[in-house]
Structure prediction request, 303 residues.
Amino acid sequence: MSVQTYDVVIIGTGPAGVQAAIHASRKKTRVLMLGRVENSALHGAHIENYAFVPGVSSGGDLLRLGVEQAQRFGTEISAEDVLSIAQAEDLFHLELEGGGAIAARSLIFCMGVAKKKLNVPGEKELSGRGVSYCVDCDANFYRGAVVTVTGDRSAAVDGALTLLDYAAKVYLVAEELNVSKELLNRLEKSKVERIHSSIKQIIGERMVHSLLLASGQTLETEGVFIELGSKGALELATQIGVQLDTESFKYIAVNRHMATNVPGIYAAGDIVGPPYQMAKAVGEGCIAGMEAATYARKIRKED
Ligand SMILES: Cc1cc2nc3c(=O)[nH]c(=O)nc-3n(C[C@H](O)[C@H](O)[C@H](O)COP(=O)(O)OP(=O)(O)OC[C@H]3O[C@@H](n4cnc5c(N)ncnc54)[C@H](O)[C@@H]3O)c2cc1C
Prediction:
């Protein structure tokens, strides 16, 4: 199967990603935007503080209009998550949730911020003592252990599959899974044990030793990975050496050109820090889109 190469790949279909797509596509570049519109923070919001759009607008409607606009300028769209990123020579190689792979000359991270907390008793107390929020960061600490992942999207499924390389036993606790058929197939063929329930309490004194599930079952486990969103910025950034902000380590660090420390990778929107506002996301997306397109064209040696 031949791997398609894009000039600019935008990860995220919220306001930052959409605006980046519009500006990058108008600079004679081949642009792909990845991610699900319905997972954008804007999707369920009602907006009345965005200039030029009077009254109260549905965030979902605004997103649909923006995506159509980007498509009119030539942006290609694929509603799937990115699972991993690697770099080789001048290209970034992306593994997609649907099982495909693509290459990009430049990347824009517009993944927003994940609502990561489970908010159950024991979570805060045992954080860092068996409770983790990042499989890619902490999997190595659980070699030979029994571990549990919870979450209903790609981060949880991909995390559970990754943990099979480290742990002796991997459970995935989720009522329903909202992932592609391909990822679901990979899960079903794997040794991950799926439990259709949710976590009500994390139990342990010094370290996690079990979970109380909504079904009433107690599940013995040495670690619980809370992976509630899509494959998140932190994990993807870690894979490729993108630096986070030095104060909170929660956001991608960028300069005024929305460039990260890795040449060719840009970031925009909530992922680079507060205020979490559509107007800010759109402004930053505009800069990132133009800068990423210029970078890609230089790599193509056309400017
Ligand atoms: C309830 C609510 C009300 C709000 N009200 C307002 C308001 O009144 N005014 C205002 O200005 N702002 C408001 N906001 C904030 C605003 O919605 C956000 O600031 C804005 O959506 C941020 O845009 P973004 O593009 O950075 O991220 P998001 O819109 O969150 O988009 C993130 C995108 O990244 C994708 N993604 C994540 N991980 C991956 C992956 N691994 N692979 C592929 N795609 C991925 C997601 O699917 C999604 O498409 C509100 C937010 C909420 C939740």
Remarks:
- The chain is about 25% helix and 25% strand.
- Residues 278-299 form the longest helix (22 residues).
- The domain at 131-226 is CATH 3.50.50.60 (FAD/NAD(P)-binding domain).
